[in-house]
Structures are given as structure tokens and as C-alpha cells.
Amino acid sequence: MSTSEPAGGDPRTAVLDSLRTAVGRIAAEPAGPRTAAQEADAAGVDASEYARAKKRALNMLAARDHGSAELRDKLLAREHPPEVVECLLERLERSGLIDDEAFARAFVRANRERRALSKTALRRELSRKGLEAQTVAAAVDPVADEHEVAFGVAMKKARSTVGLPRETRERRILGMLARRGFPSGVCIDVTRRALDET
Q: How many CA atoms lie within 13 A of 182 on its CB side?
């Protein structure tokens, strides 16, 4: 899936564009199956189950991106037959509607900007979504310096606790940074800087 995004644009626009592109690729396949029934027949699975699973998967993907393992788990939890789910996931991967690498990069970018998570927290969340270790590493390793992100979080918390004693402020800032997964050395350094500047 393409992760290009217009400068300063809404990340949802990029997701919609990539969905449109992938759907266009599916429709443009000259020799490939056209309907859910034909796709199911080609894979040797029940056509009605395949159609139901496909509809549910496309609805989930329209709401937000999913990794293949996460989508598999959700479809299996809805009691779709495993052979139908595997066939469908293979088809969605071929068409570009599911791309674990692009999903991981978009997840890292969005959660780094919106939630200011550390590399450790990003790795943990991506692993929880069932992504392979090398996919997670490829998405998280290029992430910028943790000090600046941690300092931004610390400054925000420091400003909101100005009237409290220094020890209380320090404890609250350190706790917030630790919950976001920043290393202890980074937490201590940026907390001191933030308290000195506020």
C-alpha cells in the first residue's frame, strides 16, 4: 500500500488513495476472477463464505488499515472458515490492500506524531498486532531521536503541573515518560531540562 501523503495533508487521504489504487488493480486484472464466486471457485472454497468474509474484510479495511495477522485474527474470531480466510488474505495481499510493511510505517508515523510513543512502545504495539520482527524493525529503526520527542512530552506535563512541588512534578513527568516507553536515562535527562525551563 502506498504511504505517500500530501505535505501537511490528512493521513486518511493517503489511505483512501491507496485503497482506490488497489481496488483499481483488482478490477483491471484481465485473466483473474471477477466475482467473489469466481474467486472462491478458483481457490476451491465455499463461495458464500468467501463472499461474506470478503465483505467483512473490505469493511474493516475501509475503516482503517490492518496488518495481515490482525485481519486474520478478526476474521477467524467472526467464525469464518480458516481456509476461506487464508485464501482471502492471499488475494488481498496480491492486490495491495494488505501490505504489512506499509502498515507498519504508517502506524509508526501516526503514533509517533499523535501519541509521542517511544521506539520501545512502538515495537511492542506492532508486535502485539502480529507483525514479524523484521517488519517491525524496518519501520521503527529509522525513527528520529527519542530525546526531542520525550522532551516535548516532558515540557507539556511540566507546564500543566507548574503550581505543584518540584518532587511531585518530577514524579509525574517521569511516570508519564516511562508509560510511553522511553529509556530511563532519557526520562531523567528530559525531566530535569523541562523542570529547569518551566
A: 29
